[in-house]
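Translate sequence into structure tokens.
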Amino acid sequence: MVRFGLAAILIPIILYALAGTLHYWQGWLYWIVLVIPMLVAVSYLLKYDPELLERRMKYHEKEKEQQAIIRIGTIVFIAGFLAIAIDLRIHRLDAIPLSLVLAAEAGVFLGYLLVLWVFKENSYASRTIEVVKGQEVITTGPYAIVRHPMYLGVLVMYILTPIALGSWWAVPIFSLTIPIIVWRIIEEEKVLLKDLPGYREYCQERRYRLLPYIW
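Result follows.
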């Protein structure tokens, strides 16, 4: 609760630092889109699945490849927000049309809902790549469509974040999350194929990792 509470407080501070003003409605709307689902998710997990919440608090990856992916992803994430800050200070805060900002905010929200759906279906959705004792292959909900629905939700959120915050400059940087997530999925599946019973059969039944009919 302390961690999520601090996140809710720090996000507006970061958004103010980006824009240099409190008159930044795109940032406040983005904050609402992030915080409300987060509060719902934390409340739900505390009551119904505290073990999953505990798994989501882990940050240390065991696999070297995943450690490298996290480091590179963090660099891209920071670079993307720096690009937003520079863009907002050079151009007007309303450089992106209202309709596009609202559409991007809605997309971020839908991506977040997909992540929450994954949490509801999969109690093993740890932040780190690992297979725990007694873990089973999940085939229900979004897992009936693609093998890694949570990454799809995260990817939608990342790609649309710069538009939701009013910046075109940061779009190419945040787009680098696509190859990073693809790399993470490939490395993660090596672990799952090796350690998770039934995962190979699941892969044969669900051909697509991230997007139906594409990959």
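Note: The two ends are 37 Å apart (CA to CA).
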